Amino acid sequence: MPAFIPLLLIAGAVLVGIAFWDELVGWMKRGIEKVKQMMQVAIEGAKTFIARMSDGVKNIAKYYSKNKLTNEYEETVTKKAVNENEVPEELRAKIRMQMNVEIDTTAMLLAKLSA
Questions:
Q1: How far is CA 26 from the centre of its chain?
Q2: What predicted TM-score, i.e. pTM, was given to this entire model?
Q3: Positive or negative torsion for Cα 55, 111, 25, 16
Q4: Are strands 103-104 and 73-82 parallel, antiparallel or unpaired?
Q5: Number of H helices and number of E strands within the chain?
Q6: What dihedral angle (degrees, nearest 10) is formed by the CA atoms of 66, 71, 75, 76?
Q7: Distance in angstroms (rounded) separating the CA atoms of residues 78 and 15
Q8: Least C-beta-crowded within 10 Å: which of 26, 61, 84, 86?
Q9: How many Cβ atoms from other residues are within 10 Å of residue 80's Cβ?
Q10: Angle at alpha carbon of residue 90, lines to 85 and 96, rounded to 5°
Q11: Do residues 94 and 49 lie in contact, with contact meaning Cβ atoms separated by under 8 Å?
């Protein structure tokens, strides 16, 4: 096997990872705006997850806002189907053998944003 083929595979995996995180950031931004619009609240926090479900792999975003009447936090959950082949291998390995288990990706997303 020529020496450059493993490098191409690594480069391809990196590009898949970059595209996945870029798409996740864009989806989160759109979600924040939509939740703010629909509920007329300020988003005070968010977490991201990925999970293998019976109908495929999903990115999950949980947005947190404070109810002005009760002063309690409320959670708004959105889910988006993703092609498993577009998920970085490190995440695929975590969800491969588990169904309906949410893997927290918030720290990974923050690391990608601050890199």
A1: 10
A2: 0.72
A3: negative
A4: unpaired
A5: 3, 4
A6: -60
A7: 25
A8: 26
A9: 15
A10: 65
A11: no
Task: Name residue, tokens 């495929």.
Answer: 56
What residues are paired with 81 via a beta bridge?
58
Task: Collect contacts of 11-19 with beta carbons under 8 A, ≥24 apart.
Answer: 13/88, 13/89, 16/85, 16/86, 16/87, 16/88, 17/88, 19/86
Cite the DSSP H helix spans in the chain: 4-39, 89-95, 106-114
How many residues are there in the chain?
115
Tokens of 75: 């959670």
Output the CA angle 66-74-20, nearest 5 degrees. 105
